[in-house]
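Progress note, sequence design subtask.
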């Protein structure tokens, strides 16, 4: 390659590199816990429903002693408010759908009064999708709090949930004798507010000088330092012409935690010219917390008659941060190209400095 073409490529790459930076310092996961859901059942049944074989769940004030009134208030949910549960029953009390978007490390607490026969079971389970249920806790005869009101605390499995439902089940397995059953009150769900570090694109490698129609690869290093959980993301690589018309697009998906290096393979357009290369990234955190933004990486220059190996490479370094804020602040990165004129065998390095 002659020196004039190399100089043209170097100057164009140095001139067009820009970073769009949204404001804000990368947040961290908050440790403070907050109430996500609470029902004390005093004024209403809390939107709970019940079903199953031998279903006798009732909402109201217990009519037998024991259990008598709960520690707070008067009304509860019980398998029966006036006597033992039914032989052979398998009955469930279902919570309404609970919105838990934007929260992690969820914990269920409740007040429980339990009197069941040996071999019978009371269980608490949850579902994030209405189909797949996970048992959180099983309690059988001999529970340390049996025969009196006691507090139960159950952590939910780690994950990013949009909404969940709870299920409280009493199963009569022995069928020989029945106790007074289960009574629940003060159902509370707590969690940590989800505040996730902004995704970063820390480096991009690609070859800026190509013959038309050439297949080339783009290596992108993504990072999410300090994230409490892996986050799903979508990375789009877009090639546009001088009129900003899209001529090539690739999309990859993954779960980001720490550092992830992805390689994207593209095919250069069949005609010569200058094309813009752009990365678009979206990362989701539990539905509500979502970030998106883009990075204008540089130009891909297609030269007719280009001969030899396209060994010149652009290496972009620097942070690319995106947050859920709506107000955009534009910041220019400083592009510095290193390399001496020659026959195309050098590496071009582009370094980006983010303004404070």
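Output:
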């Amino acid at each position: 390659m002659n020196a004039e073409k190399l100089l043209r490529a170097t100057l164009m790459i140095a001139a067009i590199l820009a970073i769009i930076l949204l404001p804000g310092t990368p947040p961290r996961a908050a440790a403070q816990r907050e109430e996500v859901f609470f029902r004390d059942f005093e004024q209403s049944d809390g939107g709970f429903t019940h079903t199953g074989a031998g279903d006798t769940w009732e909402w109201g004030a217990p009519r037998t002693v024991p259990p008598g009134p709960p520690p707070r208030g008067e009304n509860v949910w019980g398998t029966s408010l006036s006597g033992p549960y039914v032989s052979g029953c398998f009955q469930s009390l279902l919570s309404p759908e609970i919105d838990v978007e934007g929260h992690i490390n969820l914990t269920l607490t409740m007040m429980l009064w339990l009197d069941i026969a040996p071999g019978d079971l009371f269980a608490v389970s949850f579902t994030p999708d209405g189909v797949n249920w996970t048992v959180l806790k099983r309690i059988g005869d001999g529970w340390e709090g049996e025969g009196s009101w006691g507090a139960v605390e159950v952590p939910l499995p780690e994950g990013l949930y949009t909404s969940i439902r709870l299920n409280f089940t009493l199963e009569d397995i022995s069928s020989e004798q029945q106790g007074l059953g289960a009574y629940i009150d003060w159902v509370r769900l707590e969690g940590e507010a989800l505040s996730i570090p902004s995704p970063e694109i820390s480096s991009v490698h690609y070859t800026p000088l190509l013959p038309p129609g050439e297949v080339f690869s783009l290596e992108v290093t993504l990072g999410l330092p300090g994230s409490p959980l892996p986050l799903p993301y979508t990375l789009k690589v877009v090639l546009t012409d001088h009129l900003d018309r899209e001529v090539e697009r690739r999309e990859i998906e993954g779960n980001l935690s720490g550092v992830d290096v992805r390689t994207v393979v593209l095919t250069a357009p069949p005609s010569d010219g200058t094309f813009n290369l752009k990365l678009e990234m979206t990362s989701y955190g539990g539905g509500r917390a979502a970030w998106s933004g883009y990075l204008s990486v540089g130009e891909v220059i297609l030269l007719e008659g280009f001969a030899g190996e396209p060994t010149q490479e652009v290496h972009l370094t620097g942070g690319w941060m995106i947050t859920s804020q709506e107000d955009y602040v534009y910041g220019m990165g400083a592009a510095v190209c290193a390399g001496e004129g020659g026959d195309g065998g050098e590496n071009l390095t582009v370094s980006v400095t983010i303004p404070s």
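Residues 3-16 form the longest helix (14 residues). Work on this subtask will continue into the next period as scheduled.
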